[in-house]
Specification:
Number of helices: 54
Helix content: 40-55%
Structural class: alpha+beta
Largest sheet: 8 strands, antiparallel
Low-confidence stretches: 1-56, 422-737, 1349-1361, 1477-1481, 1492-1496
Number of strands: 24
Strand content: 5-15%
Shape: extended
């Protein structure tokens, strides 16, 4: 209230200060603006209304005068030009009559000593003197004075010359004409003047010379620019042909604008000063032909250097390839969208989730191994939600076979072991000096080493020509051909089947010896029927890194592609110490070895032995899975056969189907409850009768033929692989010169691109449809304008809510796209589409159930719109609540009171909010809707018709004038702007303060004709002066005029004022005249008491639990009117402002807490997962433009060091700027996980969901060049994401009032900010405690048998004392000892810890109960951190994972979480701080609570 008292101080005369312009910015220690002041400094731009000045109209006479003056000036100028032309013509005629006398050129001499004198004489004297001397000499000659020297004469030459000079003085006599000698002398004089220093002519000549040089230089530069421009134009013309075009030969303009936008945003190029692209087009309709394409790019690159232009060309080439992928993805998505519409026969807008996943699992099981290497396993996350996975399986499952990519870890392990073996092979090749030695070594390295290999050799020699592997001197084949040839050795043109026993023996041979040359027909070139081998080669080469060449052994021989071509697809990390070895380096090593000849075969044999060991390991999978792989191998036909290829396929399909069904039934025990239901659905609706087998096989026959794109990725050899290296380079060169095809996998682009318009075409907005139906209904005409305002003020549009039961179109399309992957050919998507069309069958009951669900959903949305509009019509003052008593009085008159008893009965089932001061029950908008729905449910008749009847009755019973309607509309708009400011603030409260004070001042001026002042004060704990009260009120924001007196001031309980009375009572207090009130505190003590005239209003700020957290104060002390009391409708509106401000305040703080949780989770993940390159966090915000899509705000980025950079000015990302990087918006649209690859880097994009299922933010996990994380890292990522989502859901539920705050740890009661920093650890601790509670005694008994006595090493068997066993024993004992020390710190001084037999006594059921009840933040807790750390610090996360015991896994994580919480509890005030961004700096660094930051 104190702000009220400070408004009329005569000492504060701000009217004489200079006015602040609309664009001015002031920087104070306290930020000020026109009407508000913030506690944190930031920039503020004032939106002052300025009336544009009317331009002066031009008078007619001014226009006429201007035309006349202009005409006269043009005539005078033309006259001067004509005079100059006439003079030039006369001089030309004179030159024709009198030729030039070049004798005068002898005067030209630039000697410095006489230059000035000569120039003066030539200019002033000689032009007159020389003709005079000529005349005088002519007279002398005429009178023959030289001949008659002795004859006296009166002729005096001096006098004659003097007379001539006087008569021809140039100052008085006009030039009648110049002789030829004089004209030349004049030119010589002009030339000499140029060389005279410090003269006008000299300076002018230098200027002319400089101008000439600059002109020549400019012309030279222009010529070069023209040549460069032409060259660039030609380059862009060639570049245009690289792009795929629509049928009209055009490119969407938005695509090229995106290309330029990405190029200009590259920080390495520093192109901020260049011309940035204009606003990117919102649609794909504007198109560019070749000329417009060149003009658009040339306009932005005019000032580019050659190096920058070359980089742009490379960027354009890369984007052209990316655009092909975009079109391919769009074609695939449209294919899936049409599939959704086909399956949604009832047009209800959603499909069953369990049936969809069941069909994906069936398709995955029936796919070949090559296809499984591309597809993602639908039984794993992200297809299965975290809630659907049992806790023991989620936290303790360490089976690498359950990766999203089949056998991913084993393939990477084999790839990582290749470098050492390549080094050995390289050394052996160097030791072989002669070709004979090399040949002998080759033969020795391929000798059989085991009986199975001998058996295999015998099998090889059964070919028609008796050709064995060792006798063939042909290059090494790809792994796919090897696998083919081992199974397909038979007579010419025949296919040999085998029994299951034969198949198993061949499988053993396949694993133990991979290299074998095929037996082909004589005269048939090798590689003729390559299509039949493609699927076989893929079976061993499909699991590799995305974007890389997917054949781990394909490029080893001379059959492989060139090293340069492979390098383009093998971008990977170069660090050999990383868990994943670079495929590029491996392939380069293989190429280098292949050039050295036959010793490569040694490495092939070693690799075979390594593969046989890996296949026979403990994680090789179930027997059913092995049989499935064997059936895949068996179905591969003979490479050289050409007769009857169809019948073997049919036989193969039947065998594969039987094997898949068997393996699927055996895996049933692994799948959880929800997945079991999906299996049941799958077999119920996709069972194939015998008579329909031929039709069902059809889609899968397409999978046997692999597209050229897929062949290129997997490394299937082709005829051109048999060319020599120079020949291959020529082929590559010719191929690069050829223009790219305008087709994608043989399909032409139709020109339709829905990348940025999926929501427009396919998204279904039920609320808009229901609103349109209400508009057409004249019964609710009074609500039409209110519903339009509600729709215009609607929250973020375009997001789908995840419900776990069904998929809408966007979610269905995204799920299938995630399943098939980005690199799969369109033929795979077509096969999946065909399979779904035949397998997705709904019963009549399910169709009716879906229609009923859709009808109920539409009815619910219609009901919410009507009731929300009715609430706003009733709440004309914008207070945000209605009085229950007033509602009942009106409802009881419905049907003349006939339904009164039913309505009273309905009130018995309503849980009303607690009574407000004054014993009134106030209902918010949601509570009002629930109350009316309960009342309607008790009335007789159709529920929808009764609801509409009740709404119509209440609408007609409420009489509102036109003025009240306009006032209500304006106030709803101002209230909406406060909430909108919170949503678009970038997690900052300053815009919320701005809009709050703006709403107050605008309403006071428009509806109260008052000048008000206001301030907001928040409650804080009084730590410095607890004697003055346990809490205090700190002013955090106020209007501008009160800044010097109010801002950051503190009000204690022992001071005057009514603010604490408002806090205690929880109701507004209005003081009409502050001068007559004795308990008002005036902040401005210099104000005279006579100026204390005005009203004061204090309103409580309440959270969702009706708890007071601050006070909003408004006064009229600065208003010049004497009577300025607040009216009731103004007080009610100010209550609405306080309510909306409270909602916006907690909205911002919820986002702040989520950032805090994410920082903690990322810090935990980075401490155990080194393979993640970066994690970016985005929040979803509404777009400032009307009727537009949402935007994403980049809040923070975490680098490889685990250091999080929080942006103080977060950038905004629009959908239209992300045509090539739309994976963020795909994730937000569908609220599903997206796996994407962009610019060679792979991303795992995960949504942060609201409690309603919509995405509130996005986590972009960049895993670099790797196709996927190792299974251990993949599981740790899942754990982090699950805990973050649970913690965010808890925070959002508490702040919205949906759930009650649950403080489990003692430390959680310290404060909201501290609790947000610890919530991640607490939720994870709860999950681990629940997992530990599910352990049985047998789980611990298996750990107690690990015993190791160093003194008994010699007595024990050798196997028991291996290094691995020793490490495992030490791991188990150290972890269990560390856990025991948590609860028995007194054991440090005893010898029990040294004896494992004594420690075993402490591992019992009581220990598990202590773990589940343990609070690491308890005050009385005493633990020995140093001793506990000693037991855990020697054991890494990888060591625990390799051990593979779930109990050790739980205890390891539990101990680390407890240690982190104990350390944080000791430094709670300094270790945890709020990461709330401010706008003063560009960024701030943050780490996991307790982590250290780098020094500044």
């Amino acid at each position: 209230m104190g702000a009220a008292a400070n408004k009329k101080s005569q000492d504060l005369n701000l009217e004489n200060q200079p006015k602040i312009s609309s664009c001015s910015i002031k920087e104070f220690k306290t930020r000020v603006s026109k009407n508000i002041v913030f506690s944190k400094p930031a920039k503020v731009i004032f939106n002052l209304d300025q009336t544009p000045q009317d331009s002066n109209w031009e008078q007619p006479w001014k226009k006429n005068l201007l035309e006349r003056v202009q005409a006269r000036a043009q005539a005078m100028h033309q006259k001067i030009i004509d005079k100059e032309n006439l003079k030039k013509e006369l001089e030309k005629k004179a030159e024709e009559k009198l030729p030039r006398d070049n004798l005068a050129k002898e005067w030209f001499n630039t000697e410095n000593m006489t230059l000035s004198t000569r120039a003066y004489l030539l200019d002033k004297l000689l032009p007159t003197l020389v003709p005079g001397m000529e005349r005088m000499l002519m007279q002398v000659e005429k009178k023959k004075l030289l001949a008659d020297v002795d004859i006296p004469t009166k002729f005096d030459p001096i006098n004659h010359l003097g007379e001539y000079l006087m008569r021809n003085n140039p100052n008085y006599i006009k030039d009648s004409g110049l002789s030829g000698y004089q004209r030349v002398m004049r030119d010589i004089s002009e030339d000499l003047k140029i060389y005279v220093p410090n003269t006008t002519y000299n300076r002018v000549s230098k200027i002319k010379e400089n101008i000439k040089q600059k002109r020549e230089q400019k012309e030279y530069i222009n010529d070069i620019k023209a040549k460069v421009a032409n060259a660039r134009k030609q380059a862009l013309q060639e570049q245009f042909s690289e792009w795929i075009l629509d049928p009209k030969g055009m490119i969407p303009m938005a695509v090229i604008q995106n290309v330029l936008y990405e190029f200009f945003q590259n920080p390495d190029l520093q192109l901020e000063t260049c011309c940035l692209p204009a606003d990117i087009a919102d649609s794909m309709k504007p198109r560019l032909n070749k000329t417009e394409f060149i003009q658009l790019i040339s306009f932005h690159i005019a000032g580019f250097k050659s190096e920058t232009f070359e980089k742009l060309l490379k960027h354009l080439c890369h984007c052209a390839d990316e655009f092909r992928e975009v079109i391919k993805t769009d074609m695939r998505r449209q294919m899936f969208a049409e599939l959704f519409l086909h399956c949604d026969r009832g047009k209800v807008g959603f499909l069953d989730r369990q049936r969809t996943l069941a069909l994906l699992e069936t398709f995955y099981d029936r796919s070949s191994k090559v296809l499984k290497g591309i597809l993602r396993n639908p039984r794993q996350w992200p297809f299965v939600e975290f809630e659907e996975i049992d806790l023991p399986e989620f936290w303790g499952d360490m089976d690498n076979q359950k990766h999203i990519y089949e056998d991913f870890d084993n393939v990477l392990l084999e790839m990582n072991t290749l470098p050492s073996e390549k080094h050995f092979s390289k050394t052996q090749s160097k030791l072989l000096a002669s070709p004979e030695d090399q040949h002998e070594h080759y033969r020795e390295s391929t000798l059989p080493q085991s009986p199975p290999e001998q058996q295999r050799g015998a099998t090889v020699e059964q070919g028609p020509n008796g050709i064995s592997t060792r006798e063939q001197e042909q290059p090494e084949e790809s792994a796919g051909e090897q696998e083919l040839n081992e199974e397909s050795v038979s007579k010419e043109g025949t296919y040999t089947g085998s029994t299951r026993e034969q198949r198993s023996s061949r499988e053993l041979i396949t694993k133990q010896r991979p290299h074998h040359e095929p037996v082909t027909e004589q005269g048939v070139p090798q590689g003729t029927h390559i299509e039949s081998t493609a699927i076989q080669g893929l079976s061993e080469e499909s699991i590799t890194t995305e974007g890389q060449h997917e054949g781990s052994t394909t490029g080893q021989g001379s059959h492989g592609k060139s090293t340069e071509e492979q390098g383009l697809r093998r971008e990977s990390k170069s660090d050999l110490e990383q868990p994943r070895e670079s495929t590029a380096e491996q392939e380069a090593g293989r190429e280098s070895q292949s050039d050295r000849g036959r010793p490569r075969e040694t490495m092939a044999g070693q690799e075979a032995h390594r593969e046989s060991q890996s296949d026979q390991g403990p994680h090789s999978g179930s027997t059913a899975e092995q049989e499935g792989r064997e059936s895949v191998v068996e179905q591969e036909p003979h490479r050289g056969s050409t007769a009857e290829p169809q019948s073997p396929r049919e036989t193969i399909w039947e065998e594969q189907q039987d094997t898949d069904l068997t393996s699927q039934s055996r895996r049933g025990s692994i799948i959880g409850g929800s997945r079991t239901s999906r299996e049941f659905i799958s077999f119920e609706h996709t069972e194939i009768p015998p008579q329909e087998e031929s039709t069902q096989v059809q889609p899968y026959e397409e999978l046997l033929f692999i597209s050229p794109e897929l062949q290129e990725k997997i490394g299937v050899s082709s005829p051109k692989d048999h060319l020599s290296e120079p020949a291959k380079k020529e082929v590559q060169k010719d191929k690069s010169c050829e223009p790219k095809s305008q087709k994608i996998e043989g399909k032409s682009w139709t020109g339709e691109l829905l990348t940025c318009n999926w929501n427009v075409k396919y998204a279904k907005h039920e609320d808009e449809e229901q609103a349109n139906l209400i508009y057409d209904n004249s019964r609710f005409a009074d609500l039409h304008s209110i519903i339009r305002n509600i729709q215009s003020h609607k929250e973020i549009k375009g997001r789908s809510a995840f419900n776990g039961v069904s998929f809408n179109l966007l979610q269905f399309v995204q799920l299938l796209e995630t399943f098939v992957g980005e690199d799969s050919p369109l033929s795979v998507s077509e096969a999946l589409t065909s399979f779904f069309k035949k397998g997705f069958v709904e019963t009549k009951e399910e169709k009716m159930s879906g229609l009923e669900k859709a009808r109920q959903n539409a009815s619910q949305i219609r009901r919410e719109l009507l009731l929300k509009a009715l609430f706003q019509k009733w709440d004309s003052d914008g207070s945000g609540f209605l009085d229950l008593k007033e509602i009942d009085e009106l409802l009881y008159t419905y049907k003349e009171g006939m339904e009164k008893e039913s309505m009273k009965k309905a009130k018995l089932h309503v849980q009303f909010p607690k009574l407000h001061p004054g014993h009134e029950v106030r209902l918010s908008s949601k509570q009002f809707q629930k109350y009316i729905e309960l009342v309607v449910s008790e009335l007789r008749g159709n529920e929808e018709e009764v609801l509409e009847s009740v709404v119509e009755f209440l609408m007609n019973s409420l009489e509102r004038s036109h003025v009240e309607s306009l006032r209500n509309c304006a106030r709803q708009k101002w209230l909406h702007q406060i909430q909108r400011a919170a949503e678009t603030s970038g997690v900052s409260l300053e815009p919320v303060y701005t809009e709050t004070f703006k709403a107050l001042t605008q309403d006071a001026e428009a509806h109260g004709n008052k000048k008000i002042s206001a301030h907001i004060s928040l409650l804080e704990e009084n730590l410095l002066l607890p004697d003055r009260g346990n809490v205090l009120l700190r002013n955090v924001a106020c209007t501008l005029d009160d800044a010097p007196f109010v801002l950051k001031r503190v009000l204690y309980r022992d001071m005057k004022g009514i603010s604490f009375t408002v806090v205690d009572e929880g109701k507004p207090i209005h003081v009409p005249q502050v001068q007559h009130h004795g308990n008002i505190y005036f902040w401005n003590h210099s104000r005279k008491k006579s100026d204390h005239n005005g009203s004061f209003l204090a309103l409580p700020l309440q959270d969702a639990y009706m708890r007071i957290f601050g006070v909003l104060a408004v006064d009229t002390l600065r208003d010049p009117q004497k009577i300025n009391i607040f009216l009731p409708h103004e007080i009610r509106f100010y209550q609405g402002v306080a309510n909306v401000f409270s909602t916006a305040y907690h909205y911002v703080h919820s986002r702040e807490h989520i950032l805090h949780i994410v920082i903690t989770g990322i810090g935990w993940l980075y401490s155990i997962t080194p393979s993640i390159s970066a994690i970016s966090t985005y929040f979803v915000e509404p777009n400032s433009e009307k009727d537009s899509d949402y935007v994403l705000r980049n809040m923070m980025v975490t680098g490889q060091q685990g250091l999080t950079e929080i942006h103080k000015k977060p950038s905004v990302i629009f959908r239209k700027t992300c045509i090539f990087r739309d994976f963020l918006f795909k994730c937000t649209d569908s609220s599903e996980v997206v796996l994407a690859s962009v610019c060679g880097e792979n991303h795992i994009v995960v949504p942060l969901r609201e409690r309603t299922g919509e995405a509130l933010g996005v986590l972009d996990v960049n895993i670099g060049k790797s196709k996927m994380l190792l299974y251990r890292e993949f599981k740790d990522l899942q754990k982090m994401l699950k805990v973050i989502q649970l913690a965010c859901s808890e925070i959002l539920g508490e702040l919205s009032g949906e759930i009650k705050k649950n403080c489990i740890l003692e430390i959680e009661s310290v404060g909201e900010v501290q609790r947000a920093g610890l919530l991640f650890f607490r939720v994870m601790l709860q999950e681990l405690k629940e997992c530990l509670g599910l352990l049985t005694s047998s789980d611990f008994v298996s750990l107690l048998v690990y015993d190791y006595d160093p003194l008994a090493v010699g007595k024990a068997p050798p196997d028991s004392q291996s290094p691995d066993v020793k490490a495992n024993i030490k791991l188990v004992q150290d972890i269990l000892k560390g856990i025991i020390v948590f609860f028995h710190p007194e054991l440090k001084s005893s010898s029990d810890l040294e004896s494992w037999d004594h420690c075993k006594l402490y591992v019992n059921q009581q220990l598990v109960e202590n773990i589940c009840d343990f609070d690491p933040t308890a005050v009385e807790l005493k633990v020995n951190l140093k001793l506990i750390a000693e037991y855990f610090e020697d054991h890494s996360r990888i060591e625990v994972w390799k051990f593979g015991n779930s109990a050790i896994e739980y205890l390891y994580h539990w101990a680390h979480i407890c240690l982190a919480l104990i350390k944080l509890n000791k430094t709670i005030s300094s270790a945890i701080s709020a990461p709330l961004p401010s706008k003063t700096d560009s960024y701030v660094y943050a780490k996991m609570p307790g982590g250290s930051l780098p020094g500044k």
